[in-house]
Amino acid sequence: MTADVSRGPSQDIETPLHLLRRFGIEVLVADQQSAVVEMSMPLAGMRNPFTGQPTIAPLGLLADAVSGMSNHFRHQGDEWTVTTELTVELSPEGCGMATAHGAPPVVAAGRPLGPRDAGSSLSVYTLSCDGVVIGGGTVRSYFLQPETVDLSEPAETLNRHEHTTLAELMAVEPMPATDDVRVLRQHADPFLNNAVGIVNGGIASAGLELAASAAVNTGDVPMRTASVRVNFLRPFPAGETSRYEATPLRVGRGTAVADAQAIGDDGRPALVARITAYR
């Protein structure tokens, strides 16, 4: 998640700076020696394109950026990092506080959790809003040496306006429901790719949450996401058929669980996720 432009990782190959700018993410602390990282991102006004309800889906991007960079700061030599697991946990009031009208940006603070081993590193982060801790989670990263890395900044592909939606920021489009399955198209947008040419892991995590949340929000009283767990299986290329698919496992009176997967343009599942939501 970060890179050394001269010889390896000082710039983040997974969450490049232009992607942070698109989503209004500000880097507050990035201490390479301690591997402590803090960033902020506004959530107020962001809506799920399926339901029109406030959404915490972009926290997947914030978590990936913060804890991914913390992991990356522990690289050696020409190593880079890619995310292999990501979790988000929110307190009962966390969703409401973070997405309320006029709410201040959510601040994520990440740091290493235990020593790195030969191939991977784990970091933990907390989420706070208006000085109140509302959640946290972990990100596990794997160290590797990719053959091709493109650190150039692509031209902006989005024509921003006063009412730009989350769906526009993410280049996604909800498709008609089929039975219980919710499908969210992921259009190709080079601005959303990481430096190895695939959809950024935080963007994909957000897409999974949007689809899964829609799968359990079929009633009149909204279900608020409380936990998200994502596993990264393989690269997620975007194209004509790339999409997120989600199905509910159980929707009860007060809680619900749904599974989702990101399917690349090659037709293979690239990421899988499970969310839990509560009324």
Automatic annotation (TrEMBL):
Top-level taxonomic group: Bacteria
Cross-referenced Gene3D superfamilies: Hotdog Thioesterase (3.10.129.10)
CDD domains the record matches: PaaI_thioesterase
SUPFAM superfamilies (UniProt xref): Thioesterase/thiol ester dehydrase-isomerase (SSF54637)
Pfam families, alphabetized: 4HBT_3 (PF13622)
Classification via InterPro entries: HotDog_dom_sf (IPR029069), TesB_ACOT8-like_N (IPR049449)
Acyl-CoA thioesterase-like N-terminal HotDog domain boundaries: 195-276
Protein name per Swiss-Prot or TrEMBL: Phenylacetic acid degradation protein
Organism name: Mycolicibacterium flavescens
Lineage of the organism: Bacteria, Bacillati, Actinomycetota, Actinomycetes, Mycobacteriales
